[in-house]
């Protein structure tokens, strides 16, 4: 089963704020500075089975200069989504790698 995905280029301040709030819920305090340092040119949101999502993060972060963040939902027992964040060109590079590897439709 392929992951569901959405690409957001140049996320609005409101979109970024919502994502940052959801990401910070799961992030250790000593890593929160990374969230502020990363370039928010584009965001690739991935959602699916946990194993597939983690494998997709591994591919995306190996192939492109991006950071991956867990986006927490209402249920703390599962990982509902991951945000791949970086420059537009690097996030698009990660997206193409995931598509060509059969992780995304």
Q: How is this structure best described in words?
A:
Strands 1-2-4-3 form a four-stranded antiparallel sheet, sandwiched between helices. The relative contact order is 0.24. The mean pLDDT is 89. The chain is of the alpha+beta class and 105 residues long. Helix 3 packs across helix 4 (88-100). It contains four helices and four strands. It starts with a strand and ends in a 5-residue tail after the last helix. 43% of the residues lie in helices and 22% in strands.
Which tags fit this structure?
alpha+beta
Distance between termini? 9 Å
Fraction of residues in β-strands: 15-25%
- Look at the helices and sheets and give the structural class: alpha+beta
For the secondary structure, the number of strands is 4
Tell me the layout of helices and strands:
Layout: E1 4-9, H1 13-24, H2 32-37, E2 42-47, H3 50-63, E3 67-71, E4 81-86, H4 88-100
Provide a compact summary of the structure.
The protein is of the alpha+beta class. The chain has helices at residues 13-24, 32-37, 50-63, 88-100; strands spanning 4-9, 42-47, 67-71, 81-86.
């Amino acid at each position: 089963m392929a992951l569901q995905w959405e690409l957001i280029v140049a996320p609005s301040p409101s979109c970024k704020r919502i994502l940052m709030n959801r990401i910070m819920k799961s992030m250790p305090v000593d890593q929160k500075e990374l969230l502020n340092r990363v370039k928010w040119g584009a965001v690739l949101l991935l959602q699916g089975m946990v194993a597939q999502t983690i494998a997709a993060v591994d591919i995306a972060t190996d192939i492109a200069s991006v950071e991956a963040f867990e986006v927490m939902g209402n249920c703390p027992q599962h990982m509902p989504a991951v945000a791949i964040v970086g420059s537009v060109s690097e996030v698009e590079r990660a997206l193409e790698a995931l598509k060509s590897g059969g992780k995304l439709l």
